[in-house]
Amino acid sequence: MALAPETVPDAGPGDESFPRRAAEVRRVTCNRGGPVLVDGPIEVCVGDGPPERIDRFRVAICACGQSGRYPLCDGTHRRL
User: Fold this and answer.
1) What confidence score (pLDDT) does residue 17 get?
2) 35 located within any domain
């Protein structure tokens, strides 16, 4: 699906934070058994909570769901 350069698709009905302006393309790296790595800066939304801006160069997002710092990875997946 081709998108106009200034738009990205809606997240879904009722999500007031979308549509949003397109930003530069971000790299997302999925590692089996490890975190999802996202080139930052990013904005993370968890459930109905407010967005949290993370200005790091690379952000590790928890994929196991067991992190004490969820949604960020704290390495807990290594002990599972």
Assistant:
1) 52
2) yes
